[in-house]
Amino acid sequence: MLIREVSDGTDLDQVLLVREVDRRVKRDGGEFLRLTLGDRSGQVVAMVWEGVPDVAPLVTAGEPVRVIGRYVVHPRYGPQVNLRALAPAEPGSYELDDLLDGPQRSAEQMEGDLRELVATVRQPHLQALLERLIGPRAAGWPAYRDAPAAKFYHQAYRHGLLEHCLTVGQAVSAISATFAGIDRDVAVTGALLHDIGKLEAYTHDPANIELTDDGRLQGEIALGYYRVRREIEEIPGFPPSLAKELGHIILSHHGTHEHGSPVLPATREATLVHMIDNLGGRLGSFDRLEKELRDGERWSSFDRALGGGAYFAAHEPLEEPRRDAA
Question: DSSP E strands: which ranges in 49-198?
Fold first, then answer.
């Protein structure tokens, strides 16, 4: 039974993935644990109030654990599991794919779409740069294909970075033809490379996505800018003006200083990539929340990324048109 299928009062005895382990101190000085447990459909909180030294070795972020307890929906705190026991997850008692979230499209399909999009970039230096960074024989391609796009909120799963950058690239490509003055090749290249710093900023364990030391110390924007800049310097005759425009997209794609961009978007191409990147992230949050909805629900719980709940209208199946007898 998936988490999203469980109803209030259901007894549980199944394997879930430990998403987070938060060790806290009670008012009396004792310790307790706040666990976030989940599967591919969603997650739920469980509290460990007693026996923390005995339970702690059983719960490691990114590892499965057998959960025995009752699923309840608290009127104030929402869904949670009242634990009776935790135990090691025995091999063969679970399928890892049932515990990990993932994209709706296969990695193979997304790679095919990516190759088609890259082939439309005509500027030879940009084409060479894309080949060196995310081409099928590029050293970094396996990581780009498999990496997550985030730790929380949107596409926080294996192949998430590929899904996000491809979606942003496809949208930028389509909109570039709508507004005058946009250099489509620059915009599409910037869209496909804007988050490449996440290859170094996040760990690649799909069960336990964390910031790396470099991600904490430098941030994904700086890491991405210097990765792209190093490759540009290896391409003979790469136009300095083109390098400047592309670098600006990467440095400004978060849109504001408060969100981590050292500079604000100052070109059409950078503005377009930022807007579509932001849109892609927000719509990715809707995808995540919809997966967690139970049958019949239309509103999600409060989501920090959206600043509120998300509404999902029920769509009735279309009726077949009537065909009068001949």
Answer: 64-74, 78-88
Contacts of 39 (CB under 8 A, 6+ apart): 2, 3, 16, 17, 98, 99
- The span from the CA of 150 to the CA of 156, in Å, is 5
Fill in the amino acid letter for 32: F
What CA–CA distance (Å, rounded) separates 253 from 279? 12
Q: What is the CA radius of gyration of the chain?
A: 23
**pLDDT values of the chain reduced to their tens digit, one per residue, 326 residues:** 888 888 889 999 999 999 889 889 888 888 999 998 988 877 889 999 988 998 999 998 888 999 999 999 888 777 899 999 999 999 888 888 788 777 878 889 999 999 999 999 999 999 999 999 999 999 999 999 998 887 766 677 889 999 999 999 999 999 998 999 999 999 999 999 999 999 999 887 776 788 899 999 999 999 999 999 999 999 999 999 999 999 999 999 999 999 889 999 999 999 999 999 989 878 877 877 887 776 677 888 787 778 888 898 875 544 545 545 44
Q: Quick check: 163 and 110 in contact, CB under 8 A?
A: yes
Q: What is the DSSP string of 269-315?
A: HHHHHHHHHHHHHHHHHHHHHHHHPPTT--BPPPBTTTTB--B----
Contact 153, 140 (CB under 8 A): no
- Cα-flanking dihedrals φ and ψ of residue 21, to 5°? -130, 115
Using CA atoms, how far apart are residues 62 and 158, in angstroms rounded to an integer? 13
Neighbouring CB atoms inside 10 A of 132's CB total 18
pTM of the model: 0.75
Distance CA 120, CA 107 (A): 20
